[in-house]
User: Fold these one by one.
Assistant:
Number 1:
Amino acid sequence: FPSHDTKDDKYGRISGLEITGDVLNVVQSGKISTIYLGAQLSKDATGAEILSYDPNTILGSSRALLEDIGSSHKYSIVKTGNYIYGFDINSAIPWRKSLAGVEDLSRYKMKSYFKNKVETIKLSGLDNIIIIGGYDSHKNIYYLTFIDLHDSTNNETLGFHEPTNRWISFHSFVPDLYASIKNLMFIAFRSATIS
C-alpha cells in the first residue's frame, strides 16, 4: 500500500487511515504516506508537480513523506480537523501531521523524557505496551496514555496543549480508551476491552 504494489512493505503494517481534505493519510509503523483521492500527481516539462483531478480515479497518486515517522500503535492515532496525532515508539516521538508535513512534538522540551520513557517501557516487551490517544476539542489537548501490562508503575497520561504547543500536564488517570461525541463531549473509559 500506498503505491498500490508491495514495494512499501518496508514501512511496516498499516496502523491507521485518516482523510484530511482530499487526501487519504496512510499511517504505517515506519512511515506516513498520502494518497490523493480522485487525483493524479504528475510533472510538467520544467519538473514542477501538477495535480490533475480525474473523475474516473478513486485512489490517485501516492507519496511517502520524507520523515521516517509512523506508528505501530493504532490507538495513539487521533484525527481532529486537519491534524492527525500519533506516537512512534521506534523513534520515541509523539507527532502531529498537518498539511505542512509531520512535526516531532517531543521537540517541545520533552525529547529526553520520551526517549527515557520508551527505553523503560520496552523492558516489559513491546507486546505488553498499549499506547492510546484522545483529543479534547474543548480544552484543545491531545492526551497520550502509556499502559504497561507488565509493570503498572510505567502507566501514565500526558497532555499536549495545541494552542500553545506545550506539554502542559501529567495526569494520574490512565484510561483504557478515549471517545469524542461529535466534538460535544470528551470521555475517558476505564476497564474497556482493547483489541
Number 2:
Amino acid sequence: MLDQYGRPIRDLRISLTDRCNLRCVYCMPEEGISFLPREDLMRLDEILTLTRIAAELGVVKIRLTGGEPTVRPDLVDIVRGIAQIPGIQDIAMTTNGVRLRTLAGPLARAGLRRVNVSLDTLNPEVFARITRGGRLQDVLEGLRAAEEAGLVPIKVNAVVVRGFNHEEVVDLAALTLNRAWEVRFIEVMPFGEVADLALAGVVRSEEIMARIEAAFGPLEPLDLSGGDPARTYRIPGAAGTLGFISPISDPFCSRCGRLRLTADGKLRLCLLRDDEEDLLTPLRRGVPYDELREIFRAAAYRRPFGHALAERMYPQHRVMIQIGG
C-alpha cells in the first residue's frame, strides 16, 4: 500500500478509547473533554475487521493507543485477536503504565510484543502536576512488570514541556546508564484547545541534547535516519539508548509510513492534520468487505505529504487524547 508520494504504509496505530485514567496537561484541556458515547467506539469485531483489511493492504505493525488503552476491559481479547491475523508481524502498545502491574503478563501471553511507557519526570510532585493527580510509583511498578513479562525492549516516552520538566532531561537520560531501555524525548505538539500551552512549552531536541551532553559528554550516534521516527544515540558506555523525536524542529514526514485509526473508526491520514476518512459508518451499514477495503486503500493513497505547523496550521478538531500517539 503506497500513498500518492510513493511512501509505503506498514504501520497502523489504533486508538481503543478516548478515555484515560490521567489528565496530562499537554494532552487534555484542564476542564476535560466530552468523551464519546460507548456505542460510538469500535467494538472488538470491528477493530479486527479493519485490522484484517489493513494487513491485506500491507500493514505489518500494529500499535495500540488511546486515550489510555489499558482502561479498555477487552484489551487482552483485542491483542489476542490481532495476533491471529495473517500478515501482522508486530503488536506494540503505548500506555501510561499505570495498569501494567496487573496487565503486563496477560498481554504478553496474548501476543503483545513491546510497550512504550509515557514518563515525563522522575519527581513524584512534578508527575502529579503534569498528570493532574497521578502517582509516579504506579508507573515505575508497571515498567518493572513489563520487563518481567518480556515486553522488551522497553521504550520510555518523555514529552518535554518548558516550565514543567525541561530541567529533568538529564535524570531521564540517566535511566539508560544501567538499563537496556530507550528513553525518547519528544517535542510537544500543538493540538486544539491546548495548542497555546504546547507552543509556549516547546523545547527543541537540540537543546535537550545539549543539556544531556553537558552532563555525560558527546553522544554516540546510532541511527540518524529518523524513520523510526526517533533519531537514536547512546551515552558512552550506557546499556540503553536515547531517542529524539522532533516534529517541530526536524520533521520526518518524508519517511513516515503510518496511519491512525481513531477510537470512533476514523482513518486519520496525518497526526497533525484534521483530514480523516470514516470507516466505521460504512462497516456498520453493511458495505461489502471489498468495498470497505477500497475505501481504506483510497484514503491511504491521498495521505498528505506532511503537517503544516510551519504555517501555523494546527489540528483543531481533536486533542491528542482523541487521536492516539
Number 3:
Amino acid sequence: KVGSKDETTGLTGVSHWVEHMNFKGTTNIPREQMKGIIEKFGGSWNGYTWIDQTTYMETASTAGLDRMLFIESERMANCVYDPADCESERTVIISELQGGENDPDTLLEQDVIAAAYKVHPYRHPTIGWLSDLQTMTRDDLYQYYRRNYVPNNATVVVVGDVDTDDVLRRVEKQFGGIPAG
C-alpha cells in the first residue's frame, strides 16, 4: 500500500527506487542467491511500482511456497541497502527516466497528470523528478523502506493448488515476528 502518492517533494521516485533496492539482497539472502532460489522451483519474479502500490510477485511451483514467503518476509524486514548498490541504482533509474523523456507519449502523460493534479500527490511521476533522484540519499531510501515496508501496510496473495488454512499458517510463521509498524 505504498506508491508515488506517498511521496513528498524532494523524495519523488523513492517508492520506485526502494522497489529496485529490495531486489539487492537481505541480511540472510545474498543478492546473488535471491533469483536462484526462485529458479530452483521453476519460478520467476518481478516487481513494479505505481501510484497506490508497490508489488512483488513470484511464480513458482507449490513446493516453493515456503521459500517464496521467506523471500518476501526477508524483503520486508531485512534488506541491506548497500551504499554502492544505491548509487548504482541511481544511475539505472535516471537512465530509465531519460529514456522516457525520449517518448512523446510519456511526456504528454506526465504533463497532463501534473496539470490535472496540481496539489495532489498523484501529480508526481512514479519514477520521480530528476532533481529529486539526483539528491536523494541512501538514508532517505532506507528510512522510507523502514517506515512503509511493514506487515500492516501489506497484502499477501497466494494463488494455486494450496489449502487456505495451511497458507495462513505459513504466512503467520514467516511474517508474524515482524513488527506491524
Number 4:
Amino acid sequence: MKDSIKIKSTNWHYISNPSKDEIERISETYDLHEIIVSDLLEKNIQDKIDIYDDLLFIVCHFPKYNTVSKTYYANEFKIILWKNFLIMISATQSRKVQKLQDDLENIKIANDEKYKISPYYLLYRFWDIMFDKVIKHMNKFNNDLISIEESIYEWELNKTTLTQVVQKKRNIAFLRHNITPHEELLEELQNATKQIFEWELDVYFEDLITKLDKIQSSISISTWNVNSLMDTYNWLLNIRTNMTIKVLTIFTVFLWLGSMISSMYGMNISLPLQDHPYSFIMVIWLIILLMVVVYIWLKYFDLL
C-alpha cells in the first residue's frame, strides 16, 4: 500500500486509482466482505453508507476542478473504517488528503482527547477539509461571476463571455448535484457512529452539517446569479441586435431614396432639368436634401 500513516493505534491507508491487484490484496489482508470488494472494483457508484457489525463502508463524491477544461468532475472516495483502521481509496489523487495525513502524523493528543486518533474523528477531519475546499471554490466562483458581470455590462457580448457564462452555469449545476447527497450521508453517518463508537462526536457532525448548509446556500445564490447573468446577456444581445437592425433599416431607407430618384432619371422619357448643364449635380443635391429631410423626421419622432 501507499501513503500509509500510523497515528498512535490507528492506521490510515490512502490509495488513489488502485489497480485490481491492489484492491484484491486489500480484501485479502483485511478479509473484506465480497459486497465491499465488488463495490471497490466498480466505478461511479451512487453515494451510500453500508453498516456492518463493527465496520462502515462509505461511498462519497467531492468536486475536483480541472484547470484545463475549467470544469468540475467528481472524485469518488470509497472509505472503509472500523476500530483501528481507516482505508481510503479515491479515483484521482487528492492533495488535501495527503496534507491532512502529514499534519496528523506527528500529532500530540492529551489523555482526554483520545477520540481524536479514532478512525471516526479522522473521517470527520477528512470531510471537514473537503468542505473547506468546496467553500474556497465557491468564493472563487462568485468572484469570477463578478468579473463576468462587469464584462457583460461593458457590452463585451462575444464568444468568450458567452463561453464563460455557459461554463459557470454547467459548473454550478454539477456542484448542486454533487453536494446534495452529502446531507443524507452525514445524517446516516452520525447515526451509525453513535451505534459503534463509544465517544460522542455529535458536535463535530453538527459542524459539518452547518458547513454543508453554508455551501448549499452559496450554491443556491450562485445559481440565481448565473441565471441572472444569462438573462442579462440575452437581453443585452437582443438590444444590440435590434440596434443593428435599426441602423440597417435606416441605411436601407437612404439607399432607397437615392435608388428611386436615380431610377426615375434613368427612364427613357422627358424629365425636368434633363437638358440643364448641371442636372447631374442638381439630382445629387435633391437626393441629399431628401435624406436630410428623412433624417430630421426620424430625429423628431425619436426613431434614431
